[in-house]
Design a protein that fits this description.
The protein is of the alpha/beta class. α2 packs parallel to α3, α7 runs parallel beside α11 and α8 packs across α9. It has an eight-stranded mixed sheet, with helices on both faces. A two-stranded parallel sheet has the order 7-14. The chain has a single domain, classed as NAD(P)-binding Rossmann-like Domain (Rossmann fold). It contains eleven helices and 14 strands.
Length: 301
């Protein structure tokens, strides 16, 4: 029997990681989870991005790594301290894992490192593929630094995929869970005028896409992990309400969001948007399970 290849995964306890780890195992990989606490089992390796510490010897023999770890940008108001944590958790962690992989012998074949469509900033109805320039704002700056932090791995000859992930829709957790309660109660509605675009992806398709990117040697650099169906906030909220068989008649005014979250967080996360398309995945002939919002919400809810 052929020996199973090993994949290192950070962020294994997050929304995406919890779905990805069993999918990797089901597809014949052994998974090494990088954890911040003391390792409690043979498949765990301790690392501490803040201290720049990682047990590199325990990573020897991995064929690749999927790096998902990062402070949750949607939890807590964006104070200056929170913004530092958001930036450092991504840049320091990515620098550490990329550097550790670059020093291994033999070297892993691939590093898939999470990024986000926040790279593009608030771009109205402009259609954006992977060739589009970075936008402006805090999240765009973080994403640029986040992706740049993979450079050590790339310079070492490791294939690097910067996974620019959209709004992840899941039956449990994530953005959809936060929206579901008010809409189920009939008090949901569009944000502002609802013209901002929401570029989304179902969790199942994201996991399939990450597995796909592990195997496809032609995928490298920035890859948009979104569905082929970006929609406006107005369309999204109407579809969500219709799926839940509830009205969506109470819009959320911009000033209320800015008051509650602060202008920067509200503008970048909710009031602004980007119309992102998955050109690289299309070119590689990836097949989505959910190509329309109606199909995704109908299944998830």
């Amino acid at each position: 029997m052929a020996e199973r290849e090993k994949i290192a995964v950070t962020g294994a306890s997050g929304l995406v990681g919890k779905a990805l780890v069993p999918a990797l195992r089901a597809n014949g990989f052994d998974v090494i989870r990088l954890v911040r606490r003391s390792a409690k089992s043979s498949d765990e390796v301790r690392w501490d991005p803040d201290a720049g510490a990682i047990d590199a010897d325990a990573l020897r023999g991995v064929c690749g790594a999927i790096h998902l770890a990062g402070d949750n940008i949607a939890e807590g108001r964006w104070t200056e301290a929170k913004k530092v944590r958001i930036r450092n958790s991504r840049v320091h962690g990515t620098t550490l894992i990329a550097g550790a992989l670059a020093e291994l012998a033999p070297k892993p074949r691939v590093l898939i490192s999470a990024s986000a469509i926040g790279y593009y900033g608030n771009r109205g109805d402009e259609t954006l593929d992977e060739r589009a320039a970075a936008g402006s704002g805090f999240l765009a700056e973080v994403c640029r630094e986040w992706e740049d932090a993979t450079r050590a791995a790339e310079e070492a000859g490791i294939r690097v995929v910067n996974a620019r992930i959209g709004i992840v829709l899941a039956s449990e957790g994530g953005a959809l869970a936060k929206m579901r309660t008010p809409f189920a109660l009939g008090v949901g509605g569009r944000i502002g005028d609802g013209t901002q675009y929401m570029s989304w992806i179902a969790l199942e398709d994201l996991v399939s896409g990450l597995l796909f990117a592990l195997q496809r040697t032609d995928l490298r650099g920035p890859v948009n992990f979104v569905s082929p169906d970006p929609v406006t906030n107005a369309y999204f909220t109407k579809t969500l309400a219709r799926t839940l068989k509830r009205p969506a008649v109470i819009p959320v005014p911009k000033f209320a969001l800015r008051l509650g979250l602060g202008s920067e967080m509200a503008d970048e996360m909710l009031i602004g948007g980007a119309r992102v398309i998955p050109a690289a995945l299309h070119a590689s002939e990836f097949v989505w399970e959910y190509t329309t919002l109606e199909a995704a919400l109908g299944s998830l809810l």
